[in-house]
Amino acid sequence: MNPLAPFLGRVTQGDCLHVLRRLPDACVDFVLTDPPYLVRYRDRDGRGYPNDDRSHWLFPAFAEIFRVLRPGRLCLCFYGWPKAGRFLTAWRECGLYPVGHFVFIKRYASRTRFTRMRHEQAYLLAKGRPALPEHPPPDVLEFPYTGNPLHPTQKPVAALVPLIEAYSAPGELVLDPFAGSGSTGEAARQCGRRLLLVELDARYAATARQRLAQDGPKSSAVPPPPSSTPR
């Protein structure tokens, strides 16, 4: 039996450390993920997500991601800049190294302190020596407002599609071990890739399953962004 069969095309609810350990070595073609930023985040409705107040999982999780990623392939990971040093240390210790950096421009400020915060960021990390993509995307991309109806930090599918298209091929396997509401899965499906999603929180896992069970992309209108809105 194919050891991937129980997980392919599905959202597995559970700790990604335990789930990834059940996968064989070098079975994933591209990782696109948005883990907790280690900042104790809460949106205006008080919503948060597990393990955003601790970092014990960071190195073990990415060590497993490194193991299941094929040599010469890439991992794109969103992160929070206040903890950039901690993320970079963990990535390097497990064998991943930066080969690119993305900035996603928002048309709204998610928070205002010393600056008006209007961007997200992600590192492109390599295992081994990947070939250069045929059509590399720009490292500054638009970040459409989702309204965050499904998750407090819901990523827009439109921002993920060009990344999946650039760093994987049709039919290849895209992994998101911190799947949230399933944006990576929806983007992978739109691009004709196979998908494997893992989400710790049972509520968000159920949301992602329901979302991916739909025949097409969500069609309901998204409200315009307020002057200050969650991440």
Low-confidence stretches: 217-231
> How do the strands line up in the largest sheet?
1-10-9-2-3-7-4-8
> What share of the residues does DSSP label as strand, in percent?
15-25%
In round numbers, the mean pLDDT is: 90
In whole angstroms, the N-to-C terminal distance is 42 Å
Please characterize this protein's 3D structure:
With 231 residues, the chain is an alpha/beta fold. The N and C termini lie far apart (42 Å). Helix 5 links the parallel strand 9 and strand 10. The protein is built from 6 helices and 10 strands, in the order E-H-E-H-E-H-E-E-E-E-E-H-E-H-E-H. Helix 2 crosses helix 3 and helix 4 crosses helix 5. The chain has a single domain, classed as Rossmann fold, CATH 3.40.50.150. The strands form 2 sheets. An 8-stranded mixed beta sheet has the order 1-10-9-2-3-7-4-8. Strands 5-6 form a two-stranded antiparallel ribbon.
Give short descriptive properties of this protein.
single chain, about 230 residues, alpha/beta, Rossmann fold, two-stranded antiparallel ribbon, 6 helices, disordered C terminus
